[in-house]
Structures are given as C-alpha cells and as structure tokens.
C-alpha cells in the first residue's frame, strides 16, 4: 500500500462524497465532518480524507506504491507530449516542403488540417475502445501505430503520401492526450487530481512549441525529413516506456475482492488477452460506443468543449502561422525562429508552475468558505485569471504584428497567451473530472475535440484572414471571441450545479438498465454488490432469498452496497433511510411494466433470460450508497422492522454465497 495511506484508519469506508445531496461535492478535511468522520481513511497527514476510499486489495491501483503511480503518470505525460509535438513539426517544415513540391505554403498547410482533425477523432475512439478492451492494450496499439506512421512521414516522397501519413499519425498519437484523465482518475485520490492534471497538461500544452523549436534548428542545416526521424525516435522511446513501465489501471469497484480478475501476466495485459477474458465484467461494445454521446449530452461538458474550442482556436492559429509571419515580416531565418519558440515554451512552464499552487489554493479557500465542501464549480474560479490573459495577449499580438513592434513584444505576449491556456486547460479538466468522475475518459476526449477542432478551424482560416484584413482586425476579432467565451464559464459558475443536478450523472448503459442485467450463476451480471427491494407479496424472481422480520444477516464489509428500492416502499422514505444510515450518492428512477406472461420472464428480455418481474406496475429507484460497514447490521434490523410492520417482503439478490453470510428465508 502506498505511503499516502500508511496511517489510514480502516474502521469503515464511508465515502465522504456521499455526505451531501450533491454527489459531486466533496469534503476533504475530516474535522469538518465531526463524529460522522470517525473511521474514515485519511492520507498520511491524518486529516485529508481519501476519496474514493481504497479497498483492501493490493491490486487496486489506488493502493499501488507512489513510485509505480508516478512512473505511469510520467509515461502518460511523455506520451501525451507526442501528439502535438509531431503535429507542430509540420508548421515549420512547410517552408522547405513548399519549395520541394512546388506548392503554396497555404496548400501545404492543409495536411496539418487533416492531422489536427484526427487528433480529436482519435481521442473519441481511444476512450470508447479503452472502455471495452482495456486501457493498456489500446495504449500499446496506438503508440505502435504512431511509431510506424511517423516513420512514414519521414520517408514520404510525395505530398499525397506525406498527407496520408500525417492524418494517420494524428489519429494514433493522441492516445494519452485524449485519455490521460482515465489514468489519473484510476490512480490518484480526489485531493491529488489538480496537481497531477497540471503535470499531464504541461506535457500537452508545451509540445506544440517544442516541435517547431527543434524543427527550426534542424531545417537550418538539414533536410526536413530529419525532423520527422527525430519524431520517430521519440515515438519509439514512448513505445519502449509503455512496454517496460505501464500496467492496466482499470479496477471495477463494484466487484467484491474475490470477484476481481486476478492479474497473471503483464505481457498478456499489454496485448489485451487478460482484459478480453474479463470483458463480461465491462460493457458490451455497442454500449461502449455510446459513452462519448452520453458524455456530450451533459450541458457542462458541451459548454466546456465550446469554451475550449473558442479559445484554443487562436492559440493554434497563432502557432500555425507565426513561422510565416516572422519569416516574411521580421525576416527571421529558421535559426532565429528556433530561438523564438523558447518564448511559448517558457510561457507554458510558467503556467504550470503557477497552477501547481493556484488550483489547490483556490480549492482550499473555497472549502474554508463553505464548511469544508468543494463543489466542482470551484475549479472554474481561476478561469477569470486565464481568460483575460488570453484576450489581452491576442489583442497585443495583433497590434504588434500590424505595426511591426519589436519581436520581443511578440515573444512576451505569445508566452502570456500560452500561460493563460495552460491554466484554463487544468481548470476545465479538473472541473469535469470532479463533476463526472465516472466519465473521466469521455470528458477528456471531448476537451481534446474542442482543442483540435479549434486548431482545425484556425489552420484553415488564419492565413487568409490575416492576409485579407490585416493582423490587427483579425486578432482583434479573435480577442472579442475569447472574451465572449468567458460568458460560458459565467453560466457554469452561477448555474452549473443546478444544471448538473437536473441532468444527473453519466449513467452509462450498463448502469442505466436494471432489466439488461441477467442472473448467471447466482449473480447479477455487471453488479456484484447486494441488491434488495421491498416488493409486493406476489413478487417472483430468480436467485432471490425472501426474508421477513429480523432474520437478516450482516453484509460483507468488502462489498460496496447498492440498493434497489420501490418508490412506494417504507424504506424509500427519507426518514426511514436516515434512520437506517443510508447515505445516498446518486439515485436513478425506473418504471417497470408488469409481468403479463405469468412465466416470470419479460417477453422482450434478450435470450429469454429471467429478470425481475412484478405482478403490477412498479417504480424503482437505484441508489448507490456507502459501502457496508460494521454497524450495518443495526441498519439492517431497522429495515426489517419496517418490513415486518408493513407486512412486506424484503428481497435480496446476491452474486455468490460469499457475499452474504447465511441468508436463509
């Protein structure tokens, strides 16, 4: 177990994210919970609550050593650097390529458009494939393809061949740029997220400027393909890091420890064999395909994506065209251009250094004001620093280019623009991860889409726009767009919580449909906690144990408890729930049609599998609650008393004989 949990208290595993009516709100300081916080697991400082509470399983990624966790963070950061590093090489190589292939620079730049578009498209495929096949095999396959397509770019002898290679390279190299949040969510606790996101985002934001920096020095003395051979070497380094250091981080916290897939061979996990054998524990492929759509249907995700699109467009626009501006207006040589790109690189590093403290400091300030609670919207406060930085920088760059100010003015405000986007990137990712931890990969992929679609647009229009209207008018309009985008963050800051509450969680397909769950071998497929309900006396079902009165036994403390309640049942009433000690994280309601066949089967059930029939129309509520704890027997008996007094039947579904001890009815 990691040193962050070495002094943990293990009496119970109540999740403090369940302590409020908003499941996205968190309490980090155990002192704020008072008696309710007794027994919660804390970090080594003795006061920071660990969210989510780690299991007792050493294979749980939350329990891995700090060295292993940070090694994986290092690998995904370096690999995330790969995508925009390779993409931005073409920003500078278009100068000699236009001569070699006798094409205009604007025409050559169209290959960059396809590359940028596929950075976004590849991100969506990354997360949906990872949900089905596992994180590690998709990472390995995509990085392998990135190595091959980068070598193809370097060896291309025609523009059409080069363009095809660039498009494919963009699709595959984006794997941890668009999927990095999945690994961060898997490996680190809630209080660690902002700083880990800041490290990973630093690799993403700095990469579009290191690429041109190195390439400019290369083409000053060497042929342009050598720049892509450098990228191929870097891609190969990432490939070796993945093979040597990475591991599968998916861990289903809905499964009891004895039902978790047992890791046997890292090589088999690398190529996806172990994940394939346990695929029945995850979603079907069609369900995985729907995950990105479910994510973008949430208004906060859509607004953040649009905000990022409207801001990153001009960051990419400046980067993709500045080599042309500096060589034509300022008469920079490739050698001069290489030194100039130190400016945005330094800007990204400044943004990362500031963010290392600012994001946590603002979160701590918010928690002090609101009784220890941190809402996801607290992460957006820093946007009001980032947006003005980007807007002012873009405007000054327009003036500087129009009036040919000294190039140092360009360098300073270019760096300032990048500092702003660096801070905004971390804030948006931290906000969406706090709001929708169940969709960590999906929200990351959509932010990547916003970034790449912004670059796609800017790359297409920037050169012609500046040539037609002049830098001042073009960048002045872009400043107005940047400022207007800030109102989207105002909407989320004021009404974000209401919007999230109204729309609910990202209840992906496997979690949404109770009646898609079969009962193979005495267990609910996809859920392995304890499921119970108060049903009418005429209810029937498969693998059910009916208990009346106080004959129930204590649940296993290793099993996360999920509860299925009839909306009309006594136990569903808030007063009874409070007496029983149920702390609800989130709730999803269902309407169930009666069983009209008399067979105990729903006619539309896939394969005729037995489901949960009822003799009359029923309304159910699926609750995700705190894990079972030592005191749960008292709550159990309280529910039994409510059942007995109302002549109802308490019905359990349980996955195997080990989950519930001696349930006999």
From TrEMBL:
Q: Which Pfam families match?
A: MFS_1 (PF07690)
Q: Which GO terms describe its cellular component?
A: plasma membrane
Q: How does it sit in the membrane?
A: Multi-pass membrane protein
| Region of interest: Disordered | 1-62, 594-614
| Gene Ontology MF: a single term | transmembrane transporter activity
Compartments reported by the entry: Membrane
Q: Which InterPro entries match?
A: MFS, MFS_trans_sf
Keyword Membrane set for record: yes
SUPFAM superfamilies given in the database record = MFS general substrate transporter
Q: Where are the transmembrane segments?
A: 72-92, 112-132, 139-159, 171-190, 197-220, 226-246, 299-326, 338-359, 380-401, 407-433, 475-496
| Keywords, alphabetical | Membrane, Transmembrane, Transmembrane helix
Transmembrane: present as a keyword of the record? yes
Q: What is this protein called?
A: Major facilitator superfamily (MFS) profile domain-containing protein
């Amino acid at each position: 177990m990691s040193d962050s949990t070495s002094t943990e208290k293990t009496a119970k595993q109540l999740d403090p994210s369940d302590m409020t009516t908003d499941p996205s709100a968190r309490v980090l300081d155990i002192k704020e919970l008072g008696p309710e916080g007794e027994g919660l697991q804390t970090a080594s400082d003795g006061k920071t609550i660990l969210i989510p509470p780690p299991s007792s399983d050493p294979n749980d990624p939350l329990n891995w050593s700090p060295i292993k966790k940070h090694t994986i963070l290092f690998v995904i950061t370096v690999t995330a650097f790969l995508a925009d590093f390779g993409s931005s090489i073409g920003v500078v190589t278009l100068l000699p390529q236009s001569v070699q292939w006798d094409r205009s620079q604007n025409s050559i730049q169209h290959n960059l458009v396809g590359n940028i578009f596929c950075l976004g498209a590849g991100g969506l495929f990354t997360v949906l494939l990872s949900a089905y096949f596992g994180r590690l095999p998709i990472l390995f396959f995509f990085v392998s393809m990135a190595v091959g397509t980068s070598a193809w770019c370097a060896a291309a002898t025609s523009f059409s061949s080069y363009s095809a290679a660039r498009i494919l390279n963009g699709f595959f190299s984006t794997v941890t740029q668009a999927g990095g949040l999945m690994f961060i969510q898997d490996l680190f606790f809630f209080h660690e997220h902002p700083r880990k996101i800041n490290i990973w985002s630093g690799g993403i934001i700095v990469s579009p400027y290191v690429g041109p920096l190195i390439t400019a020095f290369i083409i000053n003395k060497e042929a342009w393909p050598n720049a892509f051979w450098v990228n191929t070497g870097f891609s190969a380094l990432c490939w070796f890091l993945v093979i040597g250091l990475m591991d599968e981080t998916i861990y289903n916290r809905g499964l009891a420890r004895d039902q978790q897939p047992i890791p046997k061979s890292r090589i088999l996990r690398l190529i996806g064999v172990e994940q394939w054998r346990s695929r029945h524990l995850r979603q079907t492929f069609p369900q995985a395909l729907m995950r990105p759509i479910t994510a973008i249907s949430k208004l906060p995700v859509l607004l953040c994506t649009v905000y990022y699109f409207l801001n990153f467009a001009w960051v990419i626009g400046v980067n993709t065209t500045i080599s042309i501006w500096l060589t034509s207006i300022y008469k920079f040589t490739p050698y001069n251009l290489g030194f100039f790109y130190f400016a945005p690189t330094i800007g990204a590093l400044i943004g990362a250094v500031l963010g290392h403290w600012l994001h946590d400091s603002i979160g701590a300030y918010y928690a002090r004001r609101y009784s220890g609670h941190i809402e996801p919207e607290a992460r957006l406060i820093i946007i009001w620093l980032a947006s003005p930085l980007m807007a002012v920088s873009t405007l000054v760059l327009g003036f500087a280019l129009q009036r040919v100010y000294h190039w140092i003015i360009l360098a300073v405000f270019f760096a300032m623009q990048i500092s702003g986007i660096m801070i905004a990137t971390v804030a948006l990712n931290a906000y969406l991860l706090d709001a929708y931890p169940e969709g960590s990969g999906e929200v990351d992929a959509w932010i990547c889409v916003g970034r790449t679609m912004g670059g796609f647009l800017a790359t297409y229009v920037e050169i012609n726009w500046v040539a037609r209207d002049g830098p001042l008018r073009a960048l002045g309009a872009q400043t107005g767009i940047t400022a207007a985008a800030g109102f989207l963050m105002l909407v989320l800051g004021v009404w974000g919580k209401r919007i999230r509450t109204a729309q609910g969680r990202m209840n992906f397909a496997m979690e949404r449909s109770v009646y898609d769950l079969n009962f193979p071998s005495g267990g609910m497929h996809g859920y392995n906690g304890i499921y119970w309900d108060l049903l009418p006396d005429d209810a029937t079902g498969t693998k059910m144990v009916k208990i009346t009165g106080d004959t129930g036994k204590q649940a296993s403390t290793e099993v996360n408890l999920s509860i299925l309640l009839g909306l009309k049942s006594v136990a569903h009433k808030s007063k009874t729930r409070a007496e029983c000690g149920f702390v609800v994280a989130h709730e999803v309601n269902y309407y169930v049609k009666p069983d009209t066949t008399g067979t105990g089967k729903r006619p539309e059930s896939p394969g005729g599998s037995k489901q949960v029939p009822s003799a009359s129309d029923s309304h159910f509520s699926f609750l995700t609650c705190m894990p079972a704890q030592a005191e749960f027997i008292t709550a159990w008996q309280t529910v039994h008393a409510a059942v007995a007094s109302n002549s109802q039947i308490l019905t359990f579904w349980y996955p195997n004989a080990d989950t519930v001890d001696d349930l006999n009815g």
